[in-house]
Amino acid sequence: MARQPKPLVRSDIAYSTPDRIVVRGKSLPDEVLGHMNLGDFAYLQLTGKAATPQQSAMFNAIVITLVEHGMTPSAIAARMTYAGAPESLQAAVAAGLCGLGSVFVGSMEGACRMLSEALPYDTRGSRCDDLEELAVDTVAEWRARGTPIPGLGHPLHKPIDPRTPRLFELAAQNGLSGDYVRLMQLIGAEAERVSGKPLPINATGAIGAICCEFGFPWRIVRGFGVMARAIGLVGHLLEEGERPMSFELWQRVEDEASAHLRGEA
Amino acid sequence: MARQPKPLVRSDIAYSTPDRIVVRGKSLPDEVLGHMNLGDFAYLQLTGKAATPQQSAMFNAIVITLVEHGMTPSAIAARMTYAGAPESLQAAVAAGLCGLGSVFVGSMEGACRMLSEALPYDTRGSRCDDLEELAVDTVAEWRARGTPIPGLGHPLHKPIDPRTPRLFELAAQNGLSGDYVRLMQLIGAEAERVSGKPLPINATGAIGAICCEFGFPWRIVRGFGVMARAIGLVGHLLEEGERPMSFELWQRVEDEASAHLRGEA
Amino acid sequence: MARQPKPLVRSDIAYSTPDRIVVRGKSLPDEVLGHMNLGDFAYLQLTGKAATPQQSAMFNAIVITLVEHGMTPSAIAARMTYAGAPESLQAAVAAGLCGLGSVFVGSMEGACRMLSEALPYDTRGSRCDDLEELAVDTVAEWRARGTPIPGLGHPLHKPIDPRTPRLFELAAQNGLSGDYVRLMQLIGAEAERVSGKPLPINATGAIGAICCEFGFPWRIVRGFGVMARAIGLVGHLLEEGERPMSFELWQRVEDEASAHLRGEA
Amino acid sequence: MARQPKPLVRSDIAYSTPDRIVVRGKSLPDEVLGHMNLGDFAYLQLTGKAATPQQSAMFNAIVITLVEHGMTPSAIAARMTYAGAPESLQAAVAAGLCGLGSVFVGSMEGACRMLSEALPYDTRGSRCDDLEELAVDTVAEWRARGTPIPGLGHPLHKPIDPRTPRLFELAAQNGLSGDYVRLMQLIGAEAERVSGKPLPINATGAIGAICCEFGFPWRIVRGFGVMARAIGLVGHLLEEGERPMSFELWQRVEDEASAHLRGEA
């Protein structure tokens, strides 16, 4: 049962020698440190390409938007985990990340996927006359499936999500507002028309559309949310270390959840 | 057993209203997006303060240094996890983060702790004459304990770690090269003297010292590594999705590990 | 914006008072400890019901089958994580569990789902004449979708999976071999007929069918795999602590993966 | 930089051939399935040995005691994670496990360590006259360090922890009540004497002592807690799927935590 190792274990990301450290073809000490900000280096690490100044401005804004969303289930999970294992901050961040799935990062990923499937990257430009028709068809399809259209509506931010106009403004300033931003806006308008309800584009819809302007594959988009939230969660854990809320929450939940079993409710 | 909720559930990081999103006192759409890069926003999220241009340059360089370290156990764990659950990229990143503990981020945290305990932040400036004595005492203490001094030596990068001179150069350019960088250098020289072995300051030693120049509590330092590596791991998973190595590794390990049980070795 | 807490925080699993600990209605010290084995208690915790002796025998066998599957990607991920954070065994187990997703536990869940959707629990008994027709229809459906039928075939265990006949034997001995086991067997036979390839029922197919005999909702089945593998992973980590393989694997992968970048390959 | 692979990748746990699956030297289909319960198989997987009937009874009881502890921070973290990624039950279990660190499983591990360091396994039997003196010394040592003695006292279960007498009763019935159980009891009595406070042995103290009777290394003990809690967490997640509490908790925490920032408190 001897097997010859196949040449399948290969990575193009980085390498080191005694005197060099090279990431995506750039010398870390000489060409990266002091020359790039963290967002630009993330862009390089993920795409293998250096961001232009316009891409840098937009990409930094997108990732920043995803860092901190308040006392989310993810932040609560991380804080609860830290309460039990304060010696393992990394595991508390990991616990918080585990919940960034279909419910929370799903709509951003979904908007990017919806738009890039409606207007495949290799056909862009050739179909811009049809954007209104595409929007009508897309809304009809989603309504037929009975699934909410990703990237529209927000439970708190009404009538508009304050991040959306700012993200679209930055997109326009940086040459990243084309067919996909337009298509997202047309889909929003059409969805409002047929549903009769206000359905403003939320931050995840705006980000999904701008990610299409970059030409990112939709699968990468969840990764932006995950890496951004890791930063946010570290902030929550540092605060939890100084002013903990976990034990109080634990006691409240424990008391309330089993009161009926203890014959108290 | 009725309990009155105590006012213990409180966070100062962020809040939202229908038309506002405010993080660390700054309006996300108006004062952050388009005005800050990701590293600066991370600094704000974690410390509650806006970075000066000098702090920004140095902090971005520190975190970037921690993003990508090649095919580490952490990257392998993330890739293996992704092979089993490609629908949960977030869980694969989480798996990779779980291993950033005492062995890998320990030395950075350890260097920061060693230096800030040798020269507490509230006494800095007052003791700079004693730095050489402090270095001698510190090395003697660690040797007495029989524990390697954190931040010194590297298995691959010899005779020097190429990141260290660049990080110290940036520190000097940005006004962040003071007693702690000096103390780290004196500790390195003293350790070489008493051990008779080359023990250059490695990247984690340099970062630990510069974190002391910032005045960061040592516990925060692990968080820098965790958030940085989350970015790096997303890069590895995107590559794994396109050119997987997990199944090949799995087969090799499975075959080799149990060959003696199958009577083949 | 004051909100009245709704009575939504409630759990029926367990409660404690100063002198009592009750799980699923049973006193832990008096009715559980010394009276149940771990598999039976797991059955109680998950279903809220005490297992009959027959259910106990079968359920213990199912979960045991899922504990240890060799040097899987999940075991490798756990060992790699432990190498970096040996002080956090729990995080290493967590890392290993994160990969138990669509690829590895998917087929067990899929078999249970396929069978319980073909023959819904509330119609069982009434349709047993149709089992052959159901099998033909089910195979046709899956082939039309172009997706492999869950629970059939195995890359190593040929011509049969040695666990399958034993699991079906135990099912028969314990009164848990009815329409679902029969349907799974008919589906296997039909799939072999139309594909012309040997497609024996594998362990996950057998377990999926027996879970249907229990009447378990298909979503619970992944949970059996997750809790079983947690036991297996603890075993791997104890071995890793005594005879580590992580560092060797790390070095090999690091060397091989970037050889082409270093100009060595 | 070519490296010869060293024979370091080796595991003694399990192997498979086309017609065999062998775990710890036993044929899974023939010698395990239908012959062992889950607790016994866990004992085999972890220790490499088959449990005697007495060891089986005691080991099953120990692990069962650790499965379900109510609405703990770990259970809350798992439920919160499931709310965001219901498609990844495994990641929600993983998130819950990540918090089983120094605070929650620490005391069980600590009791086992304290006792086995006071009375090393290779000296047992020879020192049983000294148990009282050992207890006095041990309590004095811990008090000198200012650290609470592991395994004593409980915030809710007063004046005794109802699990402790039952666990000790089972230990006595199964020939596992020797020097270590006696030493734990003497330490409890001495601690009460010198502190003047009631300090009953809690469940983790009882389990720690009984683990010493087995001769388990103290590092294994955390593993028992982790694998047990994985079972408990699956139970919580199944309940969360049917009757969710996460969104309600999220809203409450979000509202309360930032009320002062929104100017409401």
UniProtKB/TrEMBL annotation, chains A, B, C, D:
Which of UniProt's keywords are assigned here?
Lyase, Transferase
Q: Which GO terms describe its biological process?
A: carbohydrate metabolic process; tricarboxylic acid cycle
Keyword Lyase attributed: yes
For this chain, the family text in UniProt reads:
Belongs to the citrate synthase family.
Q: Which InterPro entries match?
A: Citrate_synth-like_lrg_a-sub (IPR016142), Citrate_synth-like_sm_a-sub (IPR016143), Citrate_synthase (IPR002020), Citrate_synthase_sf (IPR036969)
Which Gene Ontology terms of cellular component type are present? cytosol
EC annotation? 2.3.3.16
Q: Which residues form the signal peptide?
A: none
Pathway participation: Carbohydrate metabolism; tricarboxylic acid cycle; isocitrate from oxaloacetate: step 1/2
The molecular function terms of the Gene Ontology recorded here are: citrate synthase activity; lyase activity
**Which PANTHER family does the annotation name?**
CITRATE SYNTHASE, CITRATE SYNTHASE, PEROXISOMAL
Instruction: Please state what the protein is called.
Output: citrate synthase (unknown stereospecificity)
Q: What class of enzyme is it?
A: transferase
